[in-house]
Amino acid sequence: MADLDGIKVEKNYHLDREFSTHGDFHVKGAENLDWGMKKHLTNIFNPRSGNTVMFAFDHGYFMGSVSGLERLDLLVPRLIDHVDVLMATRGALRSSVRPDFRKGIALRVSSGSSMLDEDLSREIVAVDIEDAIRMNADCLAVQVFIGARGQLESIDNLSRVINAANRYSIPTLGVIAVGKDMERTDQYFKLSTRIVAELGAAIIKTYYCDNFEEVAAACPAPIVVAGGKKLPEKEALEMAWNSMRAGARGVDMGRNIFQSYHPVEMADAISKIVHEGFTACEAWDYFSDATKKT
Ligand code: R5P
Fold first, then answer.
1. Looking at the domain assignment, is residue 54 inside a domain?
2. Which of 2, 25, 172, 282 has its CA 20 to 30 A from that of 117?
């Protein structure tokens, strides 16, 4: 057992230093991946900004038809040109989205109980690698429940998906789940994002929190920030801006886009922050002007 005397206990995240990629590939931590992985990651992360706007509408896999997602066939075509990636289940994509769109696909492959179950932390891998390849997925999304009852199963799911997807150069997106009883602190997100990155996920989805700079600095893979419950648009834009300036490489938002009365304008305003460096105020002004015209 290691001698605990003299261990360095203070932490230094070197916030003044950019992540060293040892090369010029635009995705954090991906310089040493192969051509196929880089091609998929380029379908997700814009090479000019290095960032991404992912539109999540995979809620139906456990919540059924939530408000705003009643008619995917009508909603998704309106938004495709305003985001970089569609994050969805195979059933939603195949049934309701034309296949000729030219955006990235984040395919939800883990699945579990419905929201009628009290413990949502137990999931399985519901989509096999061959079907993910048939869907032309650019990354495979797996929910991970660090600290919850389903922790070990979800780490098993994640590892199985990474092992299968790596054989075909498809990146895996680890989605950090936060149940109603779980904390949303930087300590928790540092722990969970780092575990998932070290298990081999090429992209991590998690929530914004205080001290997010340290969460992002300590995570060797790009973090995309989840939207969570619907907020007033101004607050959602502030969260996106705070996330980006603290080191996130994009957002993966659902309800804060599709539950807005102006989903297209909201997606555009978020995109201005993520790709063009707008501040929250500038994006809010943009959103306000755009919605006056509609
Ligand atoms: C997480 O459980 C799933 O990916 C959700 O469907 C997605 O994160 C929800 O997005 P939002 O919280 O932005 O509505």
1. yes
2. 172
- Pairing label, strands 110-112, 123-125: antiparallel
Helix (H, G, I), strand (E, B) or coil at 238: helix
The H-or-E segment that residue 197 falls in is helix 186-198
In a domain, 7, yes or no: no
Residue 2 resides in a domain: no
| pLDDT tens column, 190-199 | 999 999 999 9
Question: In the structure, how many helices (H) and strands (E) does the chain have?
Answer: 12, 10
Tell me, using a 6 A CB cutoff, whether residue 275 lines ligand 1.
no
d(CA 177, CA 148): 9
pLDDT for 123-166, tens place per residue? 889 999 999 999 999 999 999 999 888 899 999 999 999 999 99
Range of the domain at 227: 35-292
Active site residue 39: no
Asked if residue 30 is part of any domain, the answer here is no
Q: What is the pLDDT of residues 64-81, one digit of tens each?
A: 888 999 999 999 999 999
CATH number of domain containing 115: 3.20.20.70
The total of structural domains in the chain comes to 1
Q: Is 28 in the pocket of ligand 1 (CB under 6 A)?
A: no
29-33, 209-213, 290-294 — which is least confidently predicted? 290-294
CB of 253 within 6 A of ligand 1: the answer is yes
Question: Residue 1 above 60 pLDDT?
Answer: no
